[in-house]
Write a structure and sequence with these properties.
Length: 252
Amino acid sequence: MSHAGKNLRFLRKLRGWTQEQFANKISIKRSLLGAYEEERAEPRIETLQTVCTLFKLSMDDILLKDLEIPNGGGSYIDKRRAQKMASSSSAEIHFVPVKAAAGYLAGYADTEFLDELNTFTLPMLAPGYYRAFEIVGDSMLPTPSGSVIVGEKVENFEDVKNNNAYIVVSRNNGIVYKRINRNNRSKNNITLVSDNPIYDPYQVEKEDILELWKAQMIITKATVQNRWDVGQLAGMVNNLQEQVSSLKKKMN
């Protein structure tokens, strides 16, 4: 039994690369890498040879061994695993401020553009690939304008969970922070919902979406945090419940 597809996914995550980044390094399309990782297709020998060179592995290693299982610490992979475990809590997070939002749409996959962004670390985050975005406006109150949303990259759209909050990067709407509802009737679009009930939900075509980042942390200045009384919060909850119920009726 070949472990190639599973090992490709493991090696990519070991380095903290997105599918797009890894695919570029081994000169294949991202969609093809996804098929390999999900074991819907067998990797070509030429591709595996490139990966072996990149990670200092043999073909036997990548084809016949489950690289997720430690081998005693002597191999390159074991050493890299140890380094990853030691540094995973402090992986650099690129910060996208509002003033860089327009440029991000063109340079989100450009390593040179990303290298120009400031970075920071958050030791409390689990291992993963993260990016931080500054948001403006009151559409996601009680999260105030100027907050920074730290999101974890979503590689597969099927991993999106209804009613969870995401940074959505799209061609026509730019960078927005919203809750997502997947439509049962139409597989071609999603509904974006604001936490502030005065803003109506709206739909976005899936093909228009460039990136999705699931919100994991919110960084807010203490001086701009709003105080909300029980009545305000109850009203917002009721309005959100009504919106969700209405959306469910439309989607079913």
